[in-house]
Amino acid sequence: MIRTVLLFAAICANAAALAAQSPSAGDPRFVGHWRLVAFDNFDEKGAATPSAFTGGRIMYDGAGQMSAQLTHANRPPLPAGAGEAQRAAAYGSYVAYYGGYEIDAAAGRVTHKVEGSTNPTWPKTELVRYFAFSDGNNTLKLSVRNAAGRVTSTLTWARIR
Asked: Which CATH architecture has domain 2-159?
């Protein structure tokens, strides 16, 4: 009997530890690979303008890790011997980052905890996105808000798998 109780206690403790390590456990809808469908920026009056970032992928795994990549359409290849300005333009048309993530379902937000990025100012920062699912959880909208709470941009993602 004591062995059974101890075994049960060990199983419960292990399950609690795994749940604490897996922020997505509270909302498994995030887990998977997503393709960028649209990226719109909004001005102070709410008028939308499409972003130059037209392609991208975002991935969330079940262990609380994520990565994202965004790119401009029709990026020309760099010619041999490309100069500093050409390389800067090419690198400016692509952004990527990775790190952990945490979901606050009550607030409807996911926080990306950036560990590495093509943008050298992003590591050790947190990028907060407000989320909404639709289409049977196959469409994910992530919105960025400014300090006043106004939505400044929304990225729409379609589930790949």
From this structure: Beta Barrel (2.40)
